[in-house]
Amino acid sequence: MRNLGHCISAILAFTLLNPDSSQYPDFKSALKCVTALVDFTLMAQYRSHTPDTLSYMESYLQTFHWTKDIFLEFRTSKATWAQANRQDRELREVMADQGAKEVHHRTIANCRLLADQERVERSDRRADFIRRENHFNFIKMHYMTHFASNVRRFRSISMYSTVIGELAHKDQIKDGSRRSNKNEATLQILSHYGRQHALGIRLQTIEPLSQVEGVIVVEDSGMEMPTVPSHSTPHRVLKACMKNTSMLTELCTVLDIHYSNMIEEILRFIRQTAADDRRLPADPAELGLLPVEGFAQLEIPVPDFQETDRFQIHRARCTGTKAFRNGCSSNDWLWVQTGGEANYEDLRGSVVARLLALFKIRNILSEAADVHRVALVRTLDPINGGRFHIPSGHIRVGNRIKGRDMRIVSIGAMIGQAQVIPSGEKQWIVNHRIDLRTFNEIN
Hints:
The protein has helices spanning about 1-15, 25-45, 50-65, 80-100, 110-135, 140-145, 145-155, 165-180, 185-205, 250-255, 260-270, 285, 435-440; strands spanning about 210, 215, 225, 235-240, 290-305, 305-315, 335, 350-360, 370-380, 395-400, 405-410, 415, 420, 425-430. By secondary structure, it is an alpha+beta fold. It has 3 domains: about 1-75 and about 135-160, no CATH class; about 75-135; about 235-440, no CATH class.
């Protein structure tokens, strides 16, 4: 269900695309209801709140309650269905008895007309009964109203998450059981968890030991160990080296990219970089002689929302025309930072781009022989200037109509993976509710 909440609003926006005049009010209410509920759940996951975030959370919940009746017809229980069928059967018998008494005084046309009227009446009564019996009066729907007040009283809701207990069950029981030989597994599980716990305590004890000028001094031993920052920032890493990509021509052949387009984009990239000794040569002939190494994966560390010392690793793949895991080719969508936050309205300087090539190129013609880690991407243009599409509540992007759509960027400009959903010809819906960080930066 958690994964469903990350993508359902964008999928629903695509499914309810372009309704006619009779469908538009219902489709709008359904989309507004689902979007408000997803926004509420995302806001509830904040680790710290302000009065503004709590007011947003209450506003989203209020919008959900105002619009949730659009789904009321799908809340019919088995007992309600059984009672509706019984009521319909009794009504049909009553109508049949009345019709049998008056059948001698009717023509065939009148009988058919009366049967149609009775069928409509039974259907209306059945629908009215189901509508009266359906409700959203269950405990999970009610306790959401207490979220904001509980945050004001007890702080973050995540402290009371049951996920902690579920993870403890995995660490304390399942991992030990998996590593046991299944013979007297209870003792082995306890022993395994005891060792893991002792090692964890030891690692936590080492860190606060006295540190002098970058070393840890172990008391009563005279030994010194160099210290490592406990919260070092991970770097972007290129992985999955591709074969037969030692030159630009070979890389273009493997990825099915025209060589002239690649050279043209590299030259544009060179002109945008600062003029120094480490810059790549601006001569196409010299560029073609530089050693190149292609890769199929880029690991991008993305800091967690409200926890900048913790990182999620986004693994962006780029296989060109080659199949990935016996399936189709995999060329992922990414967020690329192309300017300041004032650009592209709600996108705040970020654009969605498809990854076409990952490679590093070494400038052997310079004394430093620097390595440049770059990527070739195909960028999409934000529709409506990057502002939200009001009916769907999402930002839309499409293929660039004018100008070049391919560009070379440094891997440092890639800030994470993006999720887009096709909506029509050469257009996509950007799902900014895929995680808390993206939701907070774009919303």
